Amino acid sequence: MGQFKLLLKTLGPGLLFASMAIGTSHLVLSTKAGAQYGWIMIIPIILANILKYPFFEFGVRYTSVTENSLIQGYLNLGKKYLWLYGLITLVSVFTILAALYVVTSGLFINLFKIESIGINTIALGLFSFISLLLIIGRYRFLEVSLKLVISILFLALVITTVLVINKGQAIAISGFEPPKIFNELGILFLIGLVGWMPTAVEASGWVSMWSMEKLKSMAVKPTLKEALNEFNLGYSLTALLAVFFLIIGWMTLYGTATELSGNAVLFADQVVTLFTSHIGDWAYFLIAIAAFATMFSTCMTAHDAVSRVSLDILSKLYPNCKKLGSKSAFAFTVIFLALINWVVISVFSGNMANLVALATFVSFVMAPLIGWMNLKTVTGSDFPKQYRPSGLLQILSYLGMIFLTGFAVYYCWIVI
């Protein structure tokens, strides 16, 4: 019981990671994976979660031991690595948040049946509301509120998954033939699924920043074991929810020849309507709220993380500028990111595919290098030997780098 209370007290970075990761990769990609290719896609989902695990764990490990962010670790490796991570973050600044807010706006329009209001207007409202929450509440509000959101989401998904399984799989159309996975279209989808499952590797820096904030809020610093236990709980929850979304997509949509739209509003309507048509109209509100809570929490955590990481990178590049660490600088960054991404949404007219194309390319190509950088930060001579990852975890990280490199090379070959 004492260990459980301690875990609840240290709950934070792992919870935020789960909240951030269960957005597009879960609601969109896991659902599509089950809907289009069936249960077999559980293999790449589990594989991606296992092989990417060390890179996120290293972010928590580094911060827990050194009380510095992973960005400081990159700087210790050499300023060129910090610049590289800064470039990747810059791409995220102009793409990731816009894509997340578009999907969330689509879900909001669908949930409240307000098609007469444009997606740009809804997105502006969400940007304003979330920015206000982040500026006033900061990390503490984020942590406390997400404990409630994740609890509701987890309960809703458990209930929905059980109901879907109990109802049985949707009847396939006459003459249905399973789509091939290992053709160009299938491989591209597989790359996207693996690349964003549970999230992009550069998000390891985000987890590190949340770990820093958690340390500041605690009177007694948690041990490395306690910090890792908390993160492992959040990471395990992330993987489990991915499987839930896969099962829901597989049981309700596989074989029905339903093509999920790339438009945010249409996609939201398809997901909620098709799920309820299989389970029953009474479940509409449950599913709609679960889907919206998923994306809203993802927007909030990603917005917070990109703001913190951007400021941390700038503070490392310009150490003499003390104002970068102030509350006003954080508030300005949150608002700036909201405005710039709202402009991006307006220009791209709510098309998710165009918003994430550049970010996808950069994330996939750089993922093996970010993984290597993370490994070097926790195995270098300046990192205490007794806290370095085990040999097994290091081997797993090398397997992960090989795995990511293979996907990155193939992706570049197809795209270029």
TrEMBL record:
Signal peptide: none annotated. The keyword Transmembrane applies. It is found in: Membrane. The chain crosses the membrane at residues 37-60, 81-104, 116-136, 148-165, 185-212, 233-253, 328-349, 355-375, 395-414. Keywords: Membrane, Transmembrane, Transmembrane helix. The keyword Membrane applies. This is Divalent metal cation transporter. Coiled coil: none annotated. InterPro entries: NRAMP_fam (IPR001046). It is a multi-pass membrane protein.
